[in-house]
């Protein structure tokens, strides 16, 4: 069947369109949902219109993946068979057009969209909310968008990405920039506003994702040898965003905090608008890094949370002891939780169900995500709700404004037909993972 589809992500002010390339395999692509647990990966470039290398790389990557798959390349086929890849080569086609016609594109010409807005400062600033949380150790899920956000102008490009991200539960994402040579990961903001490390609860996973890209890149990890004249530096080419410089309203932190998608920001090189003659070398520099990054979605654990009738349950929190950031199950009860090798206590819980806790051991060198499913029993006790929980829910409800951008707070899947009786379910491998049910519940 057809491998890649070109879809519209959004029409923008000028009438130009931002489009996305979706690379999925096989006719049964829609029907493996809920059983194969194929993770979704996203790559977005050219958010700043004058930073063009990512745009070229992503178009080349899409062509390359399709060509290699047709040729029967085993690595590419293995990747595409178990991963859903979504690529947006240019989120800011207006800025790009402006930059191509300008002489000052290495500076700021074309950075903004047509309304002169910086798209990577236009997302809701949820980092500021999380950094100021009163009880940071208490578990929290998707951070809602504050109502105030909508009273300022929201760019159509930003809105399109938010709507798109609400409809697909992306597990990892990279957004590609230019003008520097390093990789940032959340948070992009520190509590003090100083340039210092500002780790999220998933620091280890982020460091691993960023290093995966940097180590496979031909230059980034060669610390110091290739730093840009006006650039910042970070050890090994990777660092939390705030370590490099503080910013509000970036896409990376928003994706993590609102959607639970692990996003990194790749600064591809010193030149924002390199010459065409440099593109081939740049593709060579980044090819393995892009591949490795896509493959790195296959780590940690994933699974389905079902009720006693075997139906997937939506909105169940998957909590890892010692990490306050929960992931939440999709409409069909699926979840993905990136974790580094180690032993973890993982709990599935939601209103109306008795929580279930499992101890999970993830060995070193695992190249797949281990499957850990949960079956929840209804809670027979009358529902009692603590004052704390009640306050939290009221706060969430008050701030729940997700519908304004067309999605809702949870990741839901739209457009997947529910009748998949003809779909061929994928074989579930026997995972090298040890799971045991334990009884103590997480506080
Ligand atoms: Zn940029």
TrEMBL record:
PROSITE patterns: CARBOXYPEPT_ZN_1, CARBOXYPEPT_ZN_2, PEPTIDASE_M14. Residues 1-297 form the Peptidase M14 domain. Residues 399-421 are annotated as: Disordered. The active site is at residue 267. It comes from the Eukaryota. GO terms for cellular component: extracellular space. The keyword Zinc applies. GO terms for molecular function: metallocarboxypeptidase activity; zinc ion binding. Its cofactor is Zn(2+). InterPro entries: CarboxyPept-like_regulatory, CARBOXYPEPT_ZN_1, CARBOXYPEPT_ZN_2, Peptidase_M14, Peptidase_M14_domain. GO terms for biological process: peptide metabolic process; protein processing. Gene3D superfamilies: Carboxypeptidase-like, regulatory domain, Zn peptidases. Keywords: Carboxypeptidase, Glycoprotein, Hydrolase, Metal-binding, Metalloprotease, Protease, Zinc. Belongs to the peptidase M14 family. PANTHER family: CARBOXYPEPTIDASE Z, PROTEASE M14 CARBOXYPEPTIDASE. This is Carboxypeptidase Z. It comes from Eptatretus burgeri.
């Amino acid at each position: 069947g057809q491998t890649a589809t070109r879809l519209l992500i959004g029409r923008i002010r000028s009438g130009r369109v931002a489009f996305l390339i979706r690379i999925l395999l096989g006719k049964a692509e829609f029907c493996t949902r809920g059983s194969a647990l194929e993770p979704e990966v996203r790559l977005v470039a050219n958010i700043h219109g004058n930073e063009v290398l990512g745009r070229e790389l992503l178009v080349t990557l899409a062509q390359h993946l399709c060509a290699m798959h047709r040729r029967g390349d085993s690595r590419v086929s293995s990747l595409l068979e178990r991963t859903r890849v979504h690529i947006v080569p240019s989120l800011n086609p207006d800025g790009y057009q402006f930059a191509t016609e300008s002489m000052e594109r290495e500076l700021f010409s074309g950075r903004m969209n047509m309304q002169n807005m910086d798209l990577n400062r236009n997302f809701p600033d949820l980092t500021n909310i999380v950094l100021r949380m009163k009880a940071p150790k208490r578990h929290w899920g998707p951070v809602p968008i504050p109502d105030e956000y909508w009273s300022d102008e929201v760019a159509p490009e930003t809105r399109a990405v938010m709507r798109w991200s609400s409809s697909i539960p992306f597990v990892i994402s990279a957004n590609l920039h230019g003008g520097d040579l390093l990789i940032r990961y959340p948070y992009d903001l520190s509590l003090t506003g100083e340039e210092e490390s500002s780790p999220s609860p998933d620091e280890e996973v982020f460091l691993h994702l960023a290093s995966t890209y940097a180590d496979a890149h031909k230059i980034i990890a060669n610390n110091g040898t290739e730093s840009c004249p006006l650039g910042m530096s970070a050890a090994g080419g990777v660092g939390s965003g705030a370590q490099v410089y503080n910013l509000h309203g970036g896409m990376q932190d928003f994706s993590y905090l609102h959607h639970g998608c692990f996003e990194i920001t790749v600064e591809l090189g010193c030149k924002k608008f390199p010459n065409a003659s440099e593109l081939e070398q740049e593709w060579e520099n980044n090819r393995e890094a892009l591949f490795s990054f896509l493959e790195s979605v296959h780590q940690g654990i994933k699974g389905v949370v079902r009720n006693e009738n075997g139906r997937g349950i939506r909105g169940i929190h998957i909590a890892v002891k010692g990490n306050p950031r929960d992931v939440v199950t999709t409409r069909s009860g699926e979840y993905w939780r990136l974790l580094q090798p180690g032993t973890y206590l993982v709990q599935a819980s939601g209103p109306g169900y008795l929580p279930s806790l499992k101890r999970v051991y993830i060995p070193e060198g695992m190249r797949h995500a281990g499957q850990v499913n949960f079956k929840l029993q209804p809670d027979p006790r009358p529902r009692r709700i603590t004052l704390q929980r009640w306050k939290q829910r009221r706060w969430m409800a008050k701030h729940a404004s997700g519908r304004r951008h067309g999605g809702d707070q949870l990741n839901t899947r739209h457009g997947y037909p529910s009748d998949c009786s003809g779909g061929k379910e994928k074989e579930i491998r026997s995972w090298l993972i040890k799971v045991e049910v334990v009884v103590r519940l997480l506080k």
